[in-house]
Amino acid sequence: MPVPVRDQSRLLILDRKWQRIKHSTFAALPDYLQPNDLIVFNDTRVLPARLYAEAESGKRIELLLLGPCVSPHGNTCRRWKTLVKGRVRSGMSLIFQEGVVGHLVGESRGGEWEIVFDLPQGVDLYPYIEQWGAIPLPPYILKKREVSPSDKIRYQTVYADIPGSVAAPTAGLHFTKELIEAIKRRGIQTATITLHIGLDTFQPIRTDSIVEHAMHRERFHLSEETAEKVNFTLRNGGRVVAVGTTVTRTLESVANSDGTVRPCSGETDLFITPGFTFKVVNVMVTNFHSPRSTLLVMVSAFSGYELIRSAYREAIRQKYRFLSFGDAMLIL
After folding, report:
1. Domains of the chain, earliest start first
2. Prediction pTM value
3. pLDDT digits (tens, 9 = 90+) for 26-62
4. Residue 168, helix vs strand vs coil
5. Strand runs labelled E in the chain
C-alpha cells in the first residue's frame, strides 16, 4: 500500500560526483534543486483500462485495453488493442454496460486482439472507460491484495492529464500539488512531456545479453513549449531534472547531436544501456526497480553499475520500499 501522504515517502539521494548516499523524505526534494533547474513531468493519465463484458454465450470476459490504434493525442478512435482473458474468436461481439458493444477483429497475437467499439448515441468512449473501468494495478500487487477504491486516485499522479497509459509513471506518484507549488516558489521551472506507458514495461529481460533484448515501443509527445524550456535551461547552465525513466526516455529519444531537443510526436523504442551518452537529462528522480528490468538497466547507465548497486544495497539495508508504491531515489 502507498504511504498515507504522497510526499512522506522516503528519498535516497545518490550523489554521482562525490559517490555519496544520503537519506531524507520526498517532501525535502526542493532542498536539492536549484533556481535555474527545469523539472520535467510525464503528464500521461492511467486509464482504468480493465473492463468486463459478456459474450454471446453469457460467459464473463475480462479485457485489458492497451491503447487506441492512433497517435498519442487521438481521443476519438474506436479501434483499440486489447488483451482478452477468456475463450473468444475473431468476429465475436462482446456486450458491455450501457449498451456498448465491442467486435473482436483480426487474429490474436499472444492473447492480444483488436476491438472495435460500437457506442450508443451520446456515449463517449473515454468518459465511459473512466466510469466503468478498473485501474490496472501491476500484477505483483494484484497477487497480494484486491483493488481498493483509493487506487483509482493513488495510482495516478496529481498532474495526470492525457489519458493513454496502462501503468503509472511511478516516480511522479510522490508529488503533491503543494510540493509542486513549493518548487515553483523557489524559481524552478516546470514542463511536461507525454509518454504513454505500455504493459511491456513490466516484462523482464530474458535474453542472456541485454543487447539482444527487443525493446518495446511507447507513444510520446513533446510540445514546442517544453522543447523551448529544455533548450533554454541547457543553454543557460541549468539542469534538466527528469521525473522518472519515462521522461528520461522521451527527452533522450528526441535529443539532437548538440544536446538540444525538438518538438516531436511518435513512438520510441530507445533502450538506454550502460555506455549510453546522456545529452539532455542531468538529474533523475526514480523509484526502485526490479531485477532484470529495462528500467534498472537505464538507471545503471545513468549512475554507473557499481554506484547503483551500492545504492540498492543501502536501500535494502535501510528497508526502503521498492516498485510502484515504494520509495524514491534522487540521482544527482
Report:
1. 6-45+151-331 (3.40.1780.10), 49-133 (2.40.10.240)
2. 0.89
3. 999 999 999 999 999 999 999 998 999 998 888 999 9
4. coil
5. 10-15, 20-25, 38-42, 44-46, 50-54, 60-68, 79-85, 93-95, 101-109, 112-118, 162-165, 189-195, 218-222, 240-243, 264-268, 283-287, 328-331
